[in-house]
Specification:
two-stranded antiparallel ribbon, single chain, flat
């Protein structure tokens, strides 16, 4: 009997760079868990919060980036604030964040 074809395929990014691929997957999951936190209540919400926390920790462990608002997509802010301009919320570890209200 021939082997069954796979039911899924691994993303080429995951295969080429497992740390980056894993971090991207965990960031995607954190968005889904964040949505579930906002849409649920009770024990489902508590579970989603725990999963969001775990996904964020795994993402940070994989790529060393810390997101300002894990699970949320924020609009980019004008240059000079220290935040990324590509639409992401990730900042390299140990990079200070300067927000507009922090500047003199």
């Amino acid at each position: 009997m021939p082997p069954a074809p796979p039911a899924f395929h691994l993303d080429p990014v995951l295969l080429a760079d497992p740390a980056r691929g894993t971090a991207a997957l965990e960031q995607e999951l954190s968005g889904m868990y964040g949505d579930l936190v906002g849409l649920s209540e009770g024990s489902t919400r508590a579970w989603a919060i725990a999963q969001l926390n775990t996904a964020v920790q795994r993402s940070h462990a994989a790529d060393g980036l810390a997101e300002a608002f894990p699970g949320l997509t924020i609009d980019p802010v004008p240059d000079g604030t220290g935040l990324p301009q590509d639409g992401s919320t990730a900042l390299p570890r140990n990079q200070p964040t300067t927000l507009p209200e922090d500047t003199p």
